[in-house]
Amino acid sequence: MALRLLTAGESHGPGLVAVLEGIPYGLPLTAADIDRDLARRQRGYGRGGRMKIERDRVRILGGVRHGRTLGSPIALWIPNRDWENWRLAMAVDPPQAALVDLAAADLPPLPPEPGAATGAPLPEAGDPRDRPEGPPGGPWPPTGAGAPTGAAPAPSAADGGSLEPGRAGGQPGRPRPPADGRLEPVTRPRPGHADLAGALKYGARDIRDILERASARETAARVAAGAVARKFLGLFGVRIQSYVLRIGEVAIPSPVLTYGEGGRPPVDPDRLAAATEASPVRCPDPDASRRMVEAIRAAGQAGDTLGGVFEVLVTGVPVGLGSHVTGDRRLEGRLAGALMALNAIKGVEVGLGFAAAALPGSQVHDPIGYRPPDAAPPPPGIPPEAAQAGADGWRGPTAGFFRHRNGAGGIEGGISNGEPLVLRAAMKPIATLRRRLPSADLLTGAPFAAHHERSDVCAVPAAAVVAEALVALELAAAWLEKFGGDSIEDVQRNYAAYCQRLANWVRPRDGVPTPDAPGHGGPGRGSA
């Protein structure tokens, strides 16, 4: 069965839904497996005020029983805590009907105020930069909670909202209808967003109909689904991690493309991961991490935002995922497409990427070597059959073949070659910034200076975590295409048989393949 994902939900709606179909029967899975990645997505220096409100946790609504998947679609629900502030503006029913329901509702308490001890990660780059900003010279703090341009602030007691306890649904300190300025149509598109293009495409006269779904808040649902795919791949020793290489002008080179004499880079994936997660911007280089933080702080103080580049490293990938036979099955195309579908991503590289265009072929293509597969006990987390076929925790099963470097980024001819996958993505700066850019009203065409709502100054560290999820989903889909089965036991059995075939691929005599061994002889003539 093909792996399929569908997400639903709006940024300020009740919550986000992800339905993942195709995970086989019998995968051990709990909410904690998913919550870890949801928490990682919320961290990072430069995040905005929304992270003070949300504390993402998943509820598994279907497809799992007693800690194991059932082979049926897995339904995941991530509530939006900020929904309490938007119940009328984002109601499903028409406003008048929603108003009646809201007035009669016995609502739960509002989320704690920003900075309360909720355990939610707080944005270290906060202060006024992550708060909504009103017109120049206007009052501070603003009364709204970050409504985009064109929407009025939330109601207060002065403009008709009720703060009285004892009324139906009333709670002390909670603004109540009838007035809610967020119902006003949003007509002022923000440069760099989907606002204008989406409104014109769909014929929407209220930009909120576009911006709520276009928001990067939706990526929480994809991270939740990706965590399931990560758990599946982990059964076979596949590991996915990411780290930041650039924020603004501060950059470091990839730590994994240059191989040493042993046919692998000098960096250890465990140490790389530890250094990454210890950094507030998820950069493994401490000096560069410090300078990145300073760059984000300076950009925020200037009312600006910063983008950057992150890298995704996948170790333990076997040779043979993807295919050369048709364009839509080529692994690099599928992975690049998944990464380009992430909000604000404007470029993707595999291996050397664009740098390969400036080098001669002798410095780009990766020389091939061979060493007999090691039958020693496998490293932790690697199935014994994979170790017998050459898996070592860095590479996956390869029948003993390896590359002396990894300019290809683990993919040749659309097929994984057993080396780690190395993928990079370039993220543009966040489009919502305090430095006002010119725009034009959606309905009148009148010019105006775009306003600011709460936003991140830099979200590159978080985007890297989302990218891990997208890569996990695409790899899990390719894995099931090659080793598919209805249950985890089926997939494991098919994978073990493949590893055994690889382990017996070369039958060496004194270290030299016999003439009748599969693959003996030189490659055919190349052709364009």
From TrEMBL:
Purpose of the protein: This reaction introduces a second double bond into the aromatic ring system.
Cofactor: FMNH2
Gene: aroC
PROSITE patterns: CHORISMATE_SYNTHASE_1 (PS00787), CHORISMATE_SYNTHASE_2 (PS00788), CHORISMATE_SYNTHASE_3 (PS00789)
Protein name, per record: Chorismate synthase
Chain spans, region Disordered: 106-196, 509-528
Complexes and interactors: Homotetramer.
Family that this chain belongs to: Belongs to the chorismate synthase family.
Annotated binding of NADP(+), by residue: 41, 47
EC code(s) of this entry: 4.2.3.5
Taxonomic placement: Bacteria, Bacillati, Bacillota, Clostridia, Eubacteriales
Source organism of the structure: Thermaerobacter composti
UniProt-listed Pfam families: Chorismate_synt
Biased composition (Gly residues): 519-528
Biased composition (Basic and acidic residues): 177-187
Keyword set, alphabetical order: Amino-acid biosynthesis, Aromatic amino acid biosynthesis, FAD, Flavoprotein, FMN, Lyase, NADP
Sequence positions that bind FMN: 213-215, 343-344, 413, 428-432, 454
